[in-house]
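Aim 2 progress update. The chain analyzed this quarter is reproduced below.
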Amino acid sequence: MSNYTQLALHIDGEWLVRASGGGQPVTNPADEKTLGELPLAGVPELDHALAAAERGFTVWKRTSAHDRYTLLRKVAVLVRERHERMAEVMTLDQGKPLAEALMEAKAAADHIEWYAEEGRRVYGRVIAPRGPSIRATVMREPIGPVAAFTPWNFPVNQAVRKIAGALAAGCSIIIKGPEDTPASVVELVRCFTDAGLPAGVLNLVFGRPAEVSAHLIPSPVIRKVSFTGSVPVGKQLAAMAGMHMKRATMELGGHAPFIVFADADIASAATVAVTLKHRNAGQVCAAPSRFFLHESIHDQFVEAFVDKSKALKLGSGQDKATQMGPLAMFKRVEAILRLTDDAKSRGARVLTGGERLGSVGNFFPPTTLVDVADDALVSFEEPFGPIAPMYRFKGFDEVVARANSLPFGLSAFVFTRSLKTSIDISNELESGMISINHFGLALPETPFGGVKDSGHGSEGGSEGLDAYLTTKFVSELGQ
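Predicted structure tokens:
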């Protein structure tokens, strides 16, 4: 398609439209038409990227924090100028509504600017010595070349966090973008190169994921690994990184509880719930996916949730009226059908959705389930789609135990008017992020990350920059 991006790898300052790994078609999930051909990196391109990142790190770590800041600010300006183009191609290959794509692309500039500013504030410290003529200092330095792996559901949002964090700290980076949704990442990287980033500092590759990770992570060039994706793959990459003593940030899957207490503002809770559950067709790692409702307000909340879900307009993301687009790939349709059918077989009732829409495109409507058994697959498998199971609870201790019962711990949402309940549940929930009475996650200045099987380390906030820094202690005796 003429309005789709020319797909390419970017290595050592050059764009490569062909690669030794062959090619892969990229399709539009709304109509299943082919958009373009993506070149896949083989060993020669990966080795080229490693050598480039090693050279790029030598240049970039010696670039002053102020000069890195200045360049990143230029990138942010370009992203704002080009965010509509980024959003257009993101909607084409990922499927999300154009309005959501526009917000994601424009927000990338905020992340770049925040990291640019924070990168000027990498401070060490001086330690009081125990003897005369001794100076003891702690220095913070960039850890080295980074291998980063980003997912298909938020192609710009996830890539920019890793790129901006690494570059602000003084690291070079090889980023493996998502093969199913590559175009907006290509457009993002183009902003960095057009702003004058030195060759080799930022390299973009696509390829067969297992082959790329198995080649990059063990390389002695790579000093840090950052991955966003599923729990099973994250555990494999974390084990590989640990085997080679590489620092790692793992932002993995979730199964977020959404808890509504009896005293909550039900209308507000339902509005937030529908927005968060069906944003990006539910393909969000931090989306609410287990709805625990106090028994006294269960029916009231479900009625409001169902009404708002039915009102959502489904369609192609290119249609400005669309509020929910298709799932990004057909295997997600199959996964949601499997979870729905299993829940029904165990006694659940379907109040909305439950079946694929049409025979062209990966459309699946908002699906609401009630009377869901605790042993249903949807109760403990991350759904990653527009399916909302509802559960009743009676008291505080019960809902905390049920919310914490799974190995996930990425995000959690709570609605209550009680300050005591808010404080108490904040202390008790096993989650890396908790949002109470609103959605307050994923801003540039706030840490984003989970606990337990949902990973370790954070992106965003000062913690996100710390992930790309190492500590050096120097003790010197004056002579």
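The mean pLDDT is 97. The longest helix spans residues 65-94. These observations will guide the mutagenesis experiments scheduled for the next reporting period.
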